[in-house]
């Protein structure tokens, strides 16, 4: 049984073709790796023109994504090759929403990259903005509902420049912040 005390971020090291690669990864894990299911608990990829979150193994099931940490972690795979380029912001904001959802069940688990446990790998990619991700998660804690609302609007493609909204003095008024939070609350 998996007893999660951390989150581990991965990339698929494949090009995202805007079609569902999640099933191809699952088939590869089962047919080529001998796993009984996909190794990750969650995945995020672009399907058509929208980033989708895909469920893999149940969170209580032991993963098959990080040797030595599978019995106490939740593995999340972003489809893409982030050795070549940074993940798109929309994908990263979906990741933040997913991490916040995981936090709602387990508390604020520490987040690691796969290469933290396997230093010979670049996973989740040389261009993965890990420090930026941690900073955004910190900004979107419950004490900063405005940042969480902006992240939700980005993940729903309502705004596309979150840094502008978060760092612009024009949006520091309480009225504007409440309006944005109300809009975000009306989304799923």
Characterize the structure shown.
- This protein is of the alpha/beta class and 188 residues long.
- The chain folds into two domains: 7-128, Peptidoglycan recognition protein-like (Lysozyme-like, 3-Layer(aba) Sandwich); 140-188, no CATH class.
- The chain contains seven helices and five strands.
- β2 (42-47) and β3 form a beta hairpin.
- α2 crosses α5 and α5 (145-155) packs across α7.
- It is globular and about 55 Å long.
- The two termini are 31 Å apart.
Per CATH, the architecture of the largest domain is 3-Layer(aba) Sandwich
> Please, how many helices?
7
CATH class of the largest domain: Alpha Beta
The average pLDDT is: 87
CATH superfamily of the largest domain: Peptidoglycan recognition protein-like
Outline type = globular
Largest sheet: spatial strand order: 3-2-4-1-5
Q: Helix content range of the residues, please? A: 25-40%
């Amino acid at each position: 049984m998996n007893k999660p005390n951390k989150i581990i971020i991965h990339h698929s090291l494949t090009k995202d073709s805007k079609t569902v690669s999640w099933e191809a990864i699952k088939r590869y894990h089962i047919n080529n790796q001998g796993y009984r299911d996909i190794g990750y608990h969650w995945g995020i990829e672009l399907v058509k023109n929208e980033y989708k979150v895909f469920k893999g193994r149940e969170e209580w099931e032991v993963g098959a994504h990080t040797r030595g940490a599978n019995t106490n972690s939740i593995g999340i795979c972003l489809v893409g090759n982030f050795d070549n380029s940074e993940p798109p912001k929309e994908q990263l904001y979906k990741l933040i929403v997913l991490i916040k959802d995981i936090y709602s069940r387990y508390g604020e688990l520490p987040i690691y990259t796969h290469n933290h446990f396997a230093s010979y790998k670049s996973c989740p990619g040389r261009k993965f903005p890990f420090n930026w991700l941690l900073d955004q998660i910190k900004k979107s804690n419950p004490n900063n509902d405005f940042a969480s609302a902006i992240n939700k609007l980005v993940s729903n493609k309502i705004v596309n420049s979150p840094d502008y909204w978060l760092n612009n003095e024009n949006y520091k008024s309480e009225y504007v912040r409440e309006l944005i939070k109300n809009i975000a609350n009306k989304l799923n």
